[in-house]
Automatic annotation (TrEMBL):
Lineage: Bacteria, Pseudomonadati, Pseudomonadota, Gammaproteobacteria, Oceanospirillales
Residue ranges of the TM segments: 12-31, 84-104, 116-136, 148-167, 173-192, 229-246, 252-271, 278-298
Domain Urate oxidase N-terminal: 4-297
UniProtKB keywords: Membrane, Transmembrane, Transmembrane helix
Name of the molecule in the record: Membrane protein
Keyword Nucleus: no
InterPro entries associated with the record: Urate_ox_N (IPR010389)
Length: 404
């Protein structure tokens, strides 16, 4: 019953997380696009304090958008705020972190050979997220903040360092998720601690007719919002990274994440500069080269055969079935015995040799190449068994058959 409850909580929180995330990211993309597309307002509007305007067509209507230098002389009765999308995304994400990685710490959070206890790992997780926000916020309040390029390089380097650190402490999948949680915490911190408070000050000044409002407060909030915009695409990849063991399962997982993040930032920068009227065409090829180079470097490598395949003894089907049944079928069976699962993960069921051979590529990838399975090696698969599975895989591939 506990695993069933956990599965439902996982479903509900993930659904909420994705829904709120779509709303938050959509708002971020739209307003950054809007900021770059605004045209100078005509003289009659500038007299009213309007800085820029934009006309747009969407759905069944034509829209006119005006941006004020600070605020109109009189605020409208209804003023829409954009904050709950961010708050709900972060809260639901933290809920997922607790449900999957804290509740199931021994299986999902800890690496197979970790010396940490679950409590120690969870404590490190929580305090690292807080420390990450404090360090980032401190940098934003330092003179470095005004040097945009240098600040960006320092921030990127610190995130990569965090990815490396998490990879030393946690499982590969958990390391990626924690980088995402760290980025998400910085982003929601910007909204909660900087952007919304600056907007409240602006609204209060407009309501009280206070002309002394410092425009630098609004400008600082705008730059923090821009940080969020650039961090969005790396965060989106991390949200789906659990499906790609070739990334988080590698011993160089932190470096792979760094390259993927760099490529996504280049793509985001292309669109942001395009919205401002500058077409930096080279950014797309640069991002493509990064991705293709990464794909080439981490491509699957077949182990060198010490003995010609033809001279190797044939593997007994029963031998392979015995290994997979003992080490994998606690989860990948019609009725899993592992308490974490009510149904086989990914729908994969290994019940005989044919069902195993048909998924030989996936078994090889996850148990031999990345060694992320069995989950936290809960069933104790040995190096000898992994080696045997690797030799079996190479032989059936060399023979062009499934080994039957």
């Amino acid at each position: 019953m506990e695993s069933y409850l956990q599965e439902w909580l996982n479903l509900l929180f993930r659904w909420l997380h994705v829904t709120a995330g779509v709303a938050w990211i959509g708002a971020s993309f739209y307003f950054n696009w809007l900021e770059g597309r605004l045209e100078a307002a005509p003289a009659d509007k500038q007299k009213k304090g309007i800085k820029g305007e934009l006309w747009a067509l969407h759905g069944g209507g034509i829209y006119e958008v005006n941006k004020y230098h600070l605020a109109p002389e009189k605020l409208p009765t209804t003023l829409h705020w954009f904050k709950w999308e961010a708050y709900v995304t972060w809260l639901s994400g933290m809920g997922l972190l607790a449900i999957i990685y804290y509740w199931g710490a021994e299986s999902y959070l800890l690496a197979a050979q970790s010396s940490l206890t679950p409590i120690q790992a969870i404590t490190i997780s929580i305090f690292s997220l807080l420390a990450g926000w404090l360090i980032y916020d401190g940098l934003c309040k330092s003179p470095l903040f005004k040097q945009e390029t240098l600040f960006s390089l320092v921030l990127f380097s610190l995130i990569v360092f965090a990815a490396w650190g998490y990879a030393q402490l946690f499982s590969g999948r958990a390391a990626y998720i924690h980088v995402g949680a760290l980025i998400g915490t910085m982003m929601v911190g910007n909204v909660f601690r900087v952007i919304i408070p600056s907007q409240r000050k602006l609204v209060a000044a407009a309501e009280n007719g206070d002309k002394s409002f410092d425009p630098n407060i609004a400008q600082h909030a705008l730059l923090r919002s821009r940080h969020n915009n650039y961090l969005t695409l790396p965060l989106l990849f991390i949200m789906i990274s659990g499906h790609y063991a070739m990334t988080f399962g590698s011993e160089w997982n932190w470096a792979i994440l760094a390259v993927l993040a760099a490529a996504s930032v280049l793509v985001r920068h292309f669109f942001n500069r395009r919205n401002q009227g500058a077409i930096l065409t080279w950014l797309w090829p640069a991002a493509a080269v990064l991705m293709l180079t990464l794909a080439f470097i981490i491509r699957p490598q077949m182990a060198v055969q010490q003995t010609p395949v033809a001279e190797q003894p044939a593997f007994e089907q029963s031998e392979i079935v015995e290994i997979v049944t003992a080490r994998c079928s606690t989860c990948h069976s019609a009725t899993p015995t592992d308490p974490l699962f009510q149904s086989p993960p990914g729908g994969l069921v290994f019940h005989d040799y044919d069902s195993i051979a048909n998924k030989a590529d996936k078994i090889y990838s996850q148990t031999v190449q990345t060694q992320i399975m069995p989950l936290a090696n809960r069933t104790g698969m040995t190096d000898e068994e992994r080696s045997l599975l690797g030799q079996w895989y190479q032989q059936i591939k060399a023979n062009g058959s499934n080994g039957s």
